[in-house]
Each structure stands twice: as structure tokens, then as C-alpha cells.
Amino acid sequence: MKPASFDSMLLAVKGQLAPKAADSVKTIENELTAIRDSSGMAVVFYRLAHFWNDHKQVRVAGYYTAINAKLENSEKKLNFAGQFFLERLAEDSTEQVQVWDAMQAVDCFQRALLLNPNNDTAKIGLAKGYVLTGEPMKGVGLLREIVQKKPDDIPANMLLGEMSIQSGQLDKAIPRFETVLKKDPSNVDAMVYLAQVYEAKNEKSKAIELLERAKKTVNSPQFSRNVDEHINSLK
To answer: Which of 64, 99, 161, 218 is the most buried (most CB within 10 A)?
Structure first.
């Protein structure tokens, strides 16, 4: 899938600005033409990010935030920008925009890892980005690096479990979620995913047991109703 074009997105949101706001952003952009040093440019891109954030255009704001992070060569800011783009993937958008989001995340996390190769948070973010840009085995490699050092790492095991479900490797998913629940017995996501695995394997009693456990952990009437409906469909 071809990614969306940032220039097209920018043009579209500029068309929604009132004349005064359009003049303001043009003034900020024009400042870039006179700046040659990266520190000065970083300040202008920071201002552009805030401008677009104030106008509720978060993707454009995020893009400029990422440029600011790259110019400052800041591991912390690159991680923040990468996570920002991963979070945008949960929003309602076109596939082209989602691919663009994933590509931005990959670029930010790659740069963060150049600054600190031992940043496991960036590795997990990059692994997610690789999956979403069609390179899942690169993501698996990064996650395996983490669990080799820290076998009970929750985010890495969760993602490996989810990827095992997606690839139909149900037996490989089970120990991943069991590892998570051993370290964090109240992890509802792990319970639900593991129940999904057992349901797919037609081991309904194990699936129901996990769903009941999740229901007690969440302790929400709406969640309990949804779970009960699903449990009844399994009986």
C-alpha cells in the first residue's frame, strides 16, 4: 500500500484555516528560509508543531514534532514522536494514512535506537512499526532479542503472542500470554487473548475460565454483559 503524502495532508488542512491563521503559519514557515543551523530550525519546527496542535491537526503537529526531535537528535523526543504515530493507528483513517503513520514511527524509533541501542521501549515500538509496514520478521527479531535478555518482559511477550495469533501459530501464543499472566496476574489483555487462543483450539472450558477471570478483574457491568454474551455463545 502506497503511503499518504504529507504535502497533500498539509495542503488540505491549510485550506481549512481562517485567513488570519493562514497568514500566521505562512509567517512561521517563511522564517525557515533564513535559517541555516539545525538548532534554529528546530525552534521553528517546534513552533509549527504547536500551531497545528492548537488548530486540532494532530498528525501535522506530530510530523513537525518529529522533525524537531530529529534536528535536536533527542532520544526522548524521538521515542515520544514514534509512540505518537503508533497511537494514531487506532484512529479512523484511510489505509494510506495508516501506512504513513507506521512509516513515521519506524523512522523515529530507528533514530532513537541509533542513539541508544539498548532502548527496549524503542525496540518494541519499532517491532510494531515493522509489522504494520509489512516486515513482520524484522519485528520478531527485535522482540526475540528482548526476551532473550528478559524472558518475562511483558510488552515483548504480549506482542509476540499477538503476532502468533495473527499468523495462526496458536501453540506458540499460549506460553507468551502465560508468561505475562505469571508476572502480572491481573493483565486483562493477556486473559482475553489467551481465551481467544483456547476458543480457536476448541478448548472452550479453558476459554470460559479465562473470560470469567477477566470479568472479575475488570469489574464493570458493561464489560461483564459483553463477556456473558460471548460465554453463552460458547456453551
So the answer is: 161
